[in-house]
């Protein structure tokens, strides 16, 4: 695989979160894609999800009430805690990269992960996207998404597949 796209300044982005699986995907990139991340920094992306404040409560006659009984202060505290955890994970990832002599660039944004990743790939002109969640598989397959970009992301690795499926796009 490295022979196929090694060379002229290809950018690799790995999506991480607090799961063990994304840690393994990150380590896989460091172990197996060394040729790609020597010329340009490894882009490490993490999306800070918005807290879910909808709760369902049982009501009379089998109906359920959905509402948000949580105060804005509590939601803010939840977001702040999530942000601290995410920044700690990113700091650990940068330290691992530094210990291996790999330059790392981090991107942490709050919002809808699908849209944030789409935007980050466009802005940073990513050539290889490594992810663990099958939700993002549509991101790689979306024809409309490629039409909107001024460049083409040519490779996408789904770490959730046993064969480390590599999709090539022209």
Question: Could you explain how this protein is built, in words?
Answer:
By secondary structure, the chain is α/β, with parallel strands linked by helices. The chain has a single domain, classed as HUPs (Rossmann fold). The protein has six helices and eight strands. The strands form two sheets. The chain has a six-stranded mixed β-sheet with strand order 5-2-1-6-7-8, sandwiched between helices. A two-stranded antiparallel sheet has the order 3-4. The protein is elongated, with a radius of gyration of 19 Å. Mean pLDDT is 72; it is low at 1-8, 143-154 and 161-170. This is UspA domain-containing protein.
Write the layout of secondary structure elements.
Elements: H1 2-5, E1 12-15, H2 20-32, E2 42-48, E3 55-58, E4 64-67, H3 72-99, E5 104-110, H4 113-124, E6 128-131, H5 137-141, H6 143-148, E7 155-158, E8 165-168
Question: How would you spell out the order of helices and strands?
Answer: HEHEEEHEHEHHEE
CATH class: Alpha Beta
- Using the alpha-carbon principal axes, give the shape: elongated
- Overall number of strands: 8
What's the architecture, going by CATH?
3-Layer(aba) Sandwich
The whole-angstrom Rg is 19 Å
% residues in beta strands = 15-25%
* Beginning-to-end CA distance, first to last residue: 16 Å
The count of helical stretches stands at 6
> Strand order across the biggest sheet?
5-2-1-6-7-8
By CATH, the topology is Rossmann fold
Organism: Dovyalis caffra
InterPro entries: Rossmann-like_a/b/a_fold (IPR014729)
Protein name: UspA domain-containing protein
């Amino acid at each position: 695989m490295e022979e196929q796209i090694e060379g002229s300044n290809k950018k690799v982005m790995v999506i991480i979160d607090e799961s063990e699986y994304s840690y393994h995907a990150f380590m896989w990139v460091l172990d197996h894609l060394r040729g790609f991340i020597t010329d340009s920094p490894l882009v490490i992306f993490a999306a800070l999800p918005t807290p879910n404040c909808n709760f369902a409560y049982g009501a009379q006659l089998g109906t359920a009430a959905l509402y948000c009984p949580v105060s804005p202060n509590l939601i803010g505290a939840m977001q702040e805690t999530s942000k601290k955890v995410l920044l700690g994970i990113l700091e650990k990832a940068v330290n691992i990269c530094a210990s291996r002599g790999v330059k790392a660039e981090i991107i942490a944004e709050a919002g809808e992960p699908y849209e944030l990743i789409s935007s980050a790939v466009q802005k940073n002109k990513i050539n290889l996207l490594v992810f663990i969640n099958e939700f993002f598989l549509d991101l790689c397959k979306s024809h409309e998404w490629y039409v909107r970009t001024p460049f083409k992301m040519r490779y996408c690795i789904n770490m959730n597949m046993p064969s480390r499926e590599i999709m090539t796009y022209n």
